[in-house]
Amino acid sequence: MKLWGGRFTKPTNQLVEEYTASIGFDQLLVEEDIRGSLAHVKMLGASGILSPDEMEIISNGLTTIRDRVRAGEVEFSVSLEDIHMNIEQLLIEEVGPVGGKLHTGRSRNDQVALDMHLYVRARTLEMIQGLLAVQKALVMQAEAHVDTLLPGYTHLQRAQPVRLAHHLLAYAEMFGRDVERFMDSYKRVNMMPLGAGAIAGTPFPIDREQVAAELEFDRLYENSMDAVSDRDYLVEFLANASLVMVHLSRLSEELILWSSEEFGYVELDDAFCTGSSMMPQKKNPDVPELIRGKTGRVMGHWVALLTTLKALPLTYNKDMQEDKEGVFDTVATLSGALALTAPMLEGMNVKTDRMRQHAEEGFAAATDVADYLAAKGVPFREAHAVVGRLVLHCIQEGETLSGLSLDAYRKFHPAFEADIHQRIHVEAVADARDVRGGTARNRVLSALKQKKEQLDETLAWLDTV
Ligand code: ARG
């Protein structure tokens, strides 16, 4: 007999039962479900809807079931459809018919919304922790490599020399914005839907504020229909997660390129690579490759949920059961990626000589040669053309900008003087960008300091929630 079997004359078709059941995945919500029920029954008791005895029996029953679940002693049943009805049935078996009073003033529609809010609220904080760990790893490497210069790239062509710290801190900025996004969406996750009932509220004199306080929610849903049909907070979570994955994927792509023999800028720790079953020389960057590869599925979950919601009329529709697997998979995928990225960055061996060699040997200082002439009063457009011819000359003669003599420079423009060589030294080129957000040593140092302060602020925020 189903918990809702009263108005039915036949048992459910076997295939229907399997097709509609969510217990296969929503058992992940077991802790949240029991926690929500404990708060609900406490309120039913305090409001006089249940007697103190009934409240006590049901609470103890729920606690016993939670212990049994934690001990791995409970097997869930598909015929009971979902986690909510499985727990309710277990409760009735545990404490007898009085267990059937737990669901007073509540529907699975507001119950499942509550469970998901509790689940995503905790996971949001975990994602922020993971993002902090990745940023800490970036800061650690940045601190070690303020004076490591490498070519910065545009169009994947060497553009201008930058400090490795600056390059890494660009990623820390992205992850910092990701943290802000999760902190902001947290406000909309931290809302309490219970009390909406199936759609319209409940005639029982419940105390929604008490349940919210018990479960440490900041706000209540103010509209019962919105409470049971809102999945915006899940869409936001998936959107935030997608963007984090995109950032991790871009970082991964750079690590993959940088660890190739062609670049040779970093070597990933052996513990984070795998070999080839056939080619003995291979050391493959599987971890960043997989992070890059798994980004698509997280983005897919976001699009899938939006699509599910797109034409749904109010309020709860069974379609909404489809919100869970994508969110669960996203949590697993993103936390795995964050947990691996931090130690991978920390253990990465940087080939500073190779980076410097590339920064020096290209034409990364060409803009600075043009700026040099411009500073001497040559119109920048003319200076650009002069340096273009200089670069062409170097390419044709197998020369470099730093290798050319002053005489050679003067053949291209009389404004060149003895200080030109010093001006195009990679450090000088980086230090010339002495603007806020630029590559000058002091600017990079203050960016590092600022980033560390931001990480401390996030830690302090985590203490307040
Ligand atoms: N398993 C359902 C879900 O995840 C719970 C809510 C079911 N409500 C209902 N009226 N069938 O969406």
UniProtKB/TrEMBL annotation:
GO molecular function: argininosuccinate lyase activity
SUPFAM superfamilies listed in its UniProt record: L-aspartase-like
Broad class of the protein's primary localization: cytoplasm
Tagged with keyword Nucleotidyltransferase: no
Keyword tRNA processing: no
InterPro entries for this protein: Arg_succ_lyase_C, Argininosuccinate_lyase, Fumarase/histidase_N, Fumarate_lyase_CS, Fumarate_lyase_fam, Fumarate_lyase_N, L-Aspartase-like
EC top class, as a word: lyase
Annotated metabolic or biological route of this protein: Amino-acid biosynthesis; L-arginine biosynthesis; L-arginine from L-ornithine and carbamoyl phosphate: step 3/3
Enzyme Commission (EC) number: 4.3.2.1
Domain Argininosuccinate lyase C-terminal: 363-429
Keywords on record: Amino-acid biosynthesis, Arginine biosynthesis, Cytoplasm, Lyase
Residue intervals of the Fumarate lyase N-terminal domain: 6-300
Reaction equation(s) it catalyzes: 2-(N(omega)-L-arginino)succinate = fumarate + L-arginine
Transmembrane regions: none
Subcellular localization: Cytoplasm
Protein family per UniProt: Belongs to the lyase 1 family. Argininosuccinate lyase subfamily.
Protein name per UniProt: Argininosuccinate lyase
Primary gene name: argH
